[in-house]
Amino acid sequence: METIGTWWMWAGFAVFVVVAIAIDLLVMERQGAHKVTMGEAVRWSLLWFSLAFVFVALLWWYLDGSQGREVANTVSMQFITGYLVEKSLSVDNIFVFLMLFGYFAVPPQYQKRALIIGIIGAIVLRTVLILVGAWLLATFHWLLYVFGAFLVITGVKMWFAAGQEPDIATNPVLTLLKKRMRITNHFDGEKLSTMVDGVKHYTPLFA
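and the corresponding structure tokens:
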């Protein structure tokens, strides 16, 4: 039985993600460095919301014709539920980005580029983690308990840290970057690296 798990649907999804990011990068490149206004942010949000619901409408239409009305309704509602939950959870990420922008004093006109770089990095890393994690669990079933314990420990730490202001300066990843790489405190436009006294340094936008 052919389902939504077919290879061509996965390929289509991957192509859509790449094209969407490419369009965003192209628009950002043509606009240049500028401060994103509230109106612009609302318009982009409405655009992506609309695309998500266009997708679920096409998904429902496809499943209704191939699997039946009941399956189409169930899967479509699952998608909408997952999408809205993911949107609500992403609010936490906004506060994290705001803290990072404040710590590195990222000018408003460079914040969108920093966000795009972070999103692309997150997509790549999550894809690798999902593929590697799935392979490890399929090969070593006992790792399921290790991952479960890790999630429990992480949840407990988040519970006790709730309400506390995170200290970005003591973040181990940032500390490691500062020890291993030359990072300047000054921006050079939208560049990720710049030359300081003839020596290559990375800008706060890279960090």
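(Above: one complete record from the training split.) The two ends are 48 Å apart (CA to CA).
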